Amino acid sequence: MRATTHRQRAWALALTAALLLSGCASLQPEPVPEPVPEPVKEAEAAPVPKAEGLTLAAAAGSIETRPAYIRGSKGFFQPDKTITRAEIAQIFFNLELFVPGERTFSDIAAGSWYHDAVAALSGALKGYTDGTFRPDRTATVAEFLAVICRVLTVKLPERAEDAPWYQPHWDTAQDLGWLEACPDALPDTPLRRDAAVTILNRALGRVPDTRAIDSLENPVFLDVGPEHPAYYDILEAAVAHECDLDRDTWITETLTPPQLRQGLHTLDGSAYYVLEDGSVYVEPGLLEADGALYLVADETGRIYADGALHLWGEDVVFATETGALLTDGAWHDFYFDSQGVYTTGDAELDGYIDEVLAACTDETMTRAEKLRACYDYVRAFGYLGRNSTIYVKTMSPDQASAYAKKIFATGKGDCYNFAAAFYYLARELGYDATAVVGTCGYVWNTHAIPHGWVTIPLDGGTYLFDPQIENYNNRNGISNDTHSAYQVTYATAPANYHPN
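-> structure tokens emitted (500 positions)
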């Protein structure tokens, strides 16, 4: 026997939608003009607690069809994303909980994706004093609770004269346990997707069947898994299914979960590659698919798609924002071969770099530790005084290559050789290093002299590295602890640096 009459099912579904929008994110609210408060009226129906709602549904039948009332986008659920006022209407529309009215809004254009939903819910939606609905404005918890109460015709308590417009709706939601999973929610809290489905499922008595969800062979969304606190509630809300109300379990025989599209799915610096059977490719390493190369970062299947350098084993690669590795091309003077691997383009120089890395680093070291080891290696080279007639104004790749090869071959050089050597070693470790030339005034003189050093962007700042200055310190009894030139800013460096 099928579960509910259309009226009972609609009433239960309305309750569902209500909670979806009461999202309880602990985000800072943006200033939102207060909707026009409606007079506080007592509705005909009294609030129905969650347990009573389940009893009514079960009395009509043991099987209930539960529609999906929220979706993801391109394979991602985006649990932290906030919900707009238009999306509030769409959720109720998805549940076929219509509250039509005569109200129209001046900013709801015919043909807009939310037009039909807003029209179908106009009897439960409130606008602003200028006649607008502002569909793209982020919804708040209070706004959603108000819509819930209107759709379900919940009897509201009287509002005190000095109380805010939303107080009756807020108090009702608290009394019915709608917000029990969101202790940090405030009336003006922006509505978030993950919290919304958690609350809505509780209000409807839709308890996720964790065993059925765990039995799904493939992911429904790529950005939420069992480790996410709202994972089971998200799938309860997003996967249409039939439920055995006597056992509170999904009927898996009739379950047809959505399948992700084959191919690459990208969002906010990460990507995943979905295979033909709907599973995700999860083997860490290089993946060749659809005529491109991708770097799978870990066993979750996450692919770098952040427009940045990455170190994989002993190789440096560049992941574009599309997820594909850059091949046969350049980025910031980094050159990548047909396999997407960084190369200086000079076989002799590549050989020197490999030798140094083998000599001073090992697999147990972190990338930061390897950088320090390379710096110390270069700092220990012999110093040859700079020819006073040489004043390098810029350092081209060809010049940097020549300077680096000379000091690697002879073990001696001037400031430009030191800078070029460390520059190439840092880049081989995946750092976006720059060889800088300019002038520098140090402890032994009062005027700036031509000099070369290296900078690397780290953690949102630019840091300076000068192995030749520390080489000077070692030769002249100056402590590198008090006069360090390793990963310092221009403001904290032991000398006055002035790039050309």
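Confidence is low (pLDDT under 50) at residues 1-34, 36-60.
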